[in-house]
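TA notes, week 10

Several of you asked for a full example with nothing omitted. So below is the full record: structure tokens for the whole chain, then the designed sequence directly under it. When grading your own attempts, check the secondary structure regions first.
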């Protein structure tokens, strides 16, 4: 005996395709909403200030592994205190945008606040206003390990190559042998400042732009999220193909129906 498999009629195939088209559309709706909203937001990053807005959610900060740092390095000179929290420098509990770690020292020199951090020296007013950054100026030493002042009130910096002194203009630097220097030294944090810095650092560790980018790409869920977005892209493709096919099929059916109607009308006449 032989089995005869019944072939599905075109109407049943069309109905099945409609059903699958509907299911694919429903299953991808969430992805469409997320991709659309995140894409629109990312297109207006500057207007929305996403790169300078930070996520405060403890859940998201924990998810990204942004934990409060452990040991902090702080320097104090007069009323000014600066602290290195990982790669970021804080004036009191406010982040400084123009300097970065490593932090090598702080002192008030001729009414200027001098911070040795990153690739050189940064000069501020006592109110925290940036005046100038000294990097790669004439003879400016690199790799500063410490800063201080001599008995003659000259600014000194220590590097791996030796100790350099400068004049009041800070434009020229000369290597000195064994000068008597009072070096800036790390100091304990003021009471309550540690908690404030921990909270401030954690609150500026995750830009909103990064979260939206990770949502848009699926990376917020790790490798599995990337695979989910890839699967959604394939479903979008199937949705588009099936939608175009159904539209073409329906259009062809309408044209066939019109031709038949015209033919029947002509025969009746």
């Amino acid at each position: 005996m032989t089995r005869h498999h019944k072939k599905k009629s075109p109407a049943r195939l069309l109905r099945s395709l409609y059903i699958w088209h509907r299911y694919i559309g429903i299953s991808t709706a969430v992805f469409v909403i997320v991709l659309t909203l995140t894409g629109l937001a990312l297109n207006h990053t500057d207007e929305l200030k996403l790169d300078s807005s930070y996520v405060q959610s403890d859940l998201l900060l924990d998810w990204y592994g942004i934990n409060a740092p452990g040991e902090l390095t702080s320097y104090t000179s007069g009323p000014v205190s600066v602290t290195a929290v990982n790669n970021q420098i804080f004036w009191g509990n406010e982040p400084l945008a123009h300097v970065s770690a490593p932090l090598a020292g702080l002192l008030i020199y001729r009414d200027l606040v001098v911070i040795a951090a990153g690739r050189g020296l940064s000069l501020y007013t006592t109110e925290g206003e940036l005046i100038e950054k000294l990097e790669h100026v004439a003879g400016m030493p690199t790799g500063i390990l410490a800063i201080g002042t001599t008995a003659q009130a000259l600014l000194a910096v220590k590097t791996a190559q030796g100790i350099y002194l400068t004049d009041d203009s800070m434009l020229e630097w000369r290597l000195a042998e064994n000068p008597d220097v009072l070096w800036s030294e790390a100091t304990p944090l003021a009471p309550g400042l540690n908690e404030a810095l921990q909270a401030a650092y954690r609150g500026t560790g995750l830009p909103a732009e990064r979260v939206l980018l990770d949502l848009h790409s699926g990376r917020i869920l790790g490798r599995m999220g990337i695979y989910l977005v890839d699967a959604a892209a394939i479903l979008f493709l199937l949705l588009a193909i099936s939608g175009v096919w159904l539209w073409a099929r329906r259009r062809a059916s309408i044209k066939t129906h019109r031709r038949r109607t015209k033919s029947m009308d002509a025969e009746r006449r």
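The longest strand covers residues 94-100. Use that as a sanity check on your answer.
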